């Protein structure tokens, strides 16, 4: 995976345990809080957004999107197009997902858009 990530991307191989949209933070399994300006979350096969505390509220926040639900995918692209600077956070689950390429594809599309 490290050979296909953008050079300035950090690949954090931990689970997202909590989302704090009011603080623009994600808490990963070791307790580390990661700040973001825009957040794109790639979910697993079953769309159980309610299984991740704070995610359903976060998905109503500008700058947060998901490729896997028609209600949120437009937010994903709008967030990418509106992104001007800061950190963009993309996630890739370690569990089986319905389209393994989607989290990577949106990251590559975002990189192209960011370079414009």
TrEMBL record:
Output the superkingdom of the source species.
Answer: Eukaryota
The cross-references to SUPFAM superfamilies, in alphabetical order and at most eight, read: FAD/NAD(P)-binding domain
- What is one GO biological process annotated to this record? sulfide oxidation, using sulfide:quinone oxidoreductase
Q: Which GO terms describe its cellular component?
A: mitochondrion
One MF annotation (Gene Ontology) recorded for this entry: FAD binding
This protein is called Sulfide:quinone oxidoreductase_ mitochondrial
Task: Supply the source organism for this entry.
Answer: Caligus rogercresseyi
The taxonomic lineage of its organism, from the top, reads: Eukaryota, Metazoa, Ecdysozoa, Arthropoda, Crustacea
């Amino acid at each position: 995976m490290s050979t296909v990530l953008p050079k300035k991307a950090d690949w954090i191989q931990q689970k997202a345990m909590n989302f704090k949209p009011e603080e623009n933070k994600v808490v990963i399994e070791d307790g580390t809080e990661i700040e973001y300006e825009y957040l794109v979350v790639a979910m697993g096969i079953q769309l159980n957004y309610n299984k991740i505390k704070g995610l359903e509220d976060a998905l109503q926040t500008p700058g947060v999107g998901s490729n896997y639900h028609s209600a949120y995918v437009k937010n994903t692209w709008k967030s990418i197009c509106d992104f001007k600077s800061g950190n963009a956070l993309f996630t890739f689950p370690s569990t089986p997902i319905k389209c393994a390429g989607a989290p990577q594809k949106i990251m590559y599309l975002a990189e192209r858009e960011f370079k414009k």
